[in-house]
Specification:
It is a single chain. With 240 residues, this protein is α+β, with helices and mostly antiparallel strands. It is built from eight helices and nine strands. The strands form three sheets. Strands 1, 2, 5, 6 and 7 form a five-stranded antiparallel β-sheet that branches. Helix 1 (23-31) runs antiparallel to helix 3 (72-81), helix 2 runs antiparallel to helix 4 (97-112) and helix 7 runs antiparallel to helix 8 (184-200). The model has no long low-confidence stretch (mean pLDDT 97).
Length: 240
Amino acid sequence: SEAVTSATLCVRFNQDADDYKDVNVRRALVMAVSNEIVLELGYNDRGTVAENHHVCPIHPEYAELPAPEHNPARAREMIAAAGMADHEFELISIDDAWQAATCDSVAAQVRDAGIRVKRTLLPGSTFWNDWTKYPWSATEWNMRPLGVQVLALAYRTGEAWNESAFSNAEFDSLMAEAMAIADADERRVVMKRIQEIMQEEGVMIQPYWRSLYRHFDPKVKGAEMHPTFEHHHYKWWIDA
């Protein structure tokens, strides 16, 4: 059973770290990566391509934007202009099959652009101790029904789960406005600018939205995959 979801993996930059204070460095690393290739190599094409702003087309207030630019040559030029042509960036991920493969794909593309990258894998028992502190790392985010929900949790100034240390006054103001609009069509007008800010600020490489799967015997009924991993056991039954 397949569920189309807004679950994802965010390969985010911590803007408190010296390496990622410069927006041009962040944007260059984003530009070096094709999200389509990451989906193919990191998650076996079992999902849909994302746009580096953490709002999914299945969210009711999603606003359609032009596809992000993929330009490895320009990325290399921007890194050189920032004085980091010889710098080695480090990308950290949990030692989990699909998350590690996704980050391997990101690192390979950045290297192909002529930018040095070191890959570090950590076991979960170590990774989750400091997940909000790594300079450049990948974090799994599961689905929330509305686009504003994860944005409020993870990107507003000072939020406990703001792993990117993102702080933008215009973003915060627009989020307060969006959170007060009940109608999704009206909220979409504000969301468009929110999504643009996320892209302009190079907050993260967010390559894809995951499809999720559940396997069950044909005689088991009502056990289809739920997009947020819920188990509705009262719906399950066996055709004997």
